[in-house]
Amino acid sequence: MAGDDGDGIVDLLGDDYARTILRETYGDTKSVESLTEACDADSSTVYRRVQRLQDAGLLEDEQQLDPGGHHYKTYRASVRAVHLELSDEGFEVTVDRPESDAADRFTRLYEGFK
User: Fold this and answer.
1) CATH for the 6-112 domain, from 1.10.10.10, 2.40.30.10, 2.40.160.20, 1.10.3720.10
2) Cross-referenced InterPro entries, in alphabetical order (predicted)?
3) Which segments of the chain have a pLDDT < 70?
4) Would you list the DSSP string of 44-100?
């Protein structure tokens, strides 16, 4: 699947915080609090990067319910690889996403509310 905004994705991946967020959320969900610690940045910086990653389709969120009844979001990388290909016309960015079916998403959502 080719990215609609290849330049934007390349620019975003050039950012240390964005790369840290993707690395930390690859295969496991993380809260903004956890990502803030991993990035050694303030939460507003992390929220901005999270939003940019979501806008680019590289990060997805999941709603969680804590024992006190409050809701919060966790984030998971929704990308396996980003390929940059050079041709006579310029660069083409292709994003490989993990296979995900509705049953897996429903199971994760259900388990999050247990």
Assistant:
1) 1.10.10.10
2) WH-like_DNA-bd_sf, WH_DNA-bd_sf
3) 1-5, 99-114
4) HHHHHHHHHHHHTTSEEEEEEE-TTS-EEEEEEE--SEEEEEEETTEEEEEEE----
